[in-house]
Amino acid sequence: MEPAPANPKPDELPRRVQPVTLILLLVLAVLIGSRWYLDRFGTRPTEQNRDAAHRVDLNRASKNELLQLPGVGPAMADRIVAHRESNGRFNKVEDLDQVPGIGDATVNKLRIWVTVAPLESAIPEKTEPDRLTRKPPTSKSEPKSSKGPVDVNRATLDELNTLPNIGPVLAQRIIAERTKKPFTDIDDLRRVSGIGPKRIEALRGLVSFGE
């Protein structure tokens, strides 16, 4: 019968475990240190590649859009919107530190998620004012209508209005006056208030008085 192996001495077991324990502790310390460094100074791959086209514009974002930002809750989103409405637009991302409750740490955290679009320089186009076009004056000797003489005793209001220097008011007066007594010649038109010698000469040859 073979003799049983002798048990190791009590002080031999810790000596064997010590190197392994030291190695495990060293690896653990390296992992913890690397994690701390990356969280404090490093950037996540998705954050590093985030471009300005996908960032939230602080001057246009609604409350719901601000709530999508990391670390921004309803109260902070309300404060950002209220600050923007009362103090005007943000000129740069760093202006966020003017919002109550937002410090440098929050600004640095949001920097890669937000942007401030430049103010659009809307220069109004110069438009030339409408030029006032003056109609050439109607010659007193030229009739408004080329249909021939107008019978002032039978013409309608529109037909009388085609005569030179005779507008709607004088045309209505001519009709009112002829109902009292028909016109017999051009000089009878002087009975109409507002028709003087100059208008009589302008109408000569353009009006008739029936048979």
Provide a descriptive summary of the structure in words.
The chain is mainly alpha-helical and 211 residues long. It folds into three domains: 17-45; 50-115, Orthogonal Bundle (DNA polymerase, domain 1); 150-208, Orthogonal Bundle (DNA polymerase, domain 1). The chain has helices at 12-41, 45-48, 63-67, 74-87, 104-110, 157-161, 168-180, 197-203; strands at residues 56-57, 114-115, 150-151, 207-208. The radius of gyration is 50 Å and the shape is rod-shaped. Residues 43-49, 121-130 and 139-146 have low confidence and may be disordered.
Structure described in brief:
This protein is mainly alpha-helical and 211 residues long.
Q: Structurally, how many domains make up the residues?
A: 3
Topology order in helix (H) and strand (E) letters = HHEHHHEEHHHE
Strand content: under 5%
Indicate the mean pLDDT.
78
Number of strands: 4
Number of helices: 8
Q: What general outline do the C-alpha atoms trace? A: rod-shaped
Which percent range fits the helix content? 40-55%
**Runs with pLDDT <50, length 5+?**
43-49, 121-130, 139-146
How is the topology of this model organized?
Elements (H helix, E strand, L loop, with lengths): L11 H30 L3 H4 L7 E2 L5 H5 L6 H14 L16 H7 L3 E2 L34 E2 L5 H5 L6 H13 L16 H7 L3 E2 L3
Parallel strand pairs: 1-2, 3-4
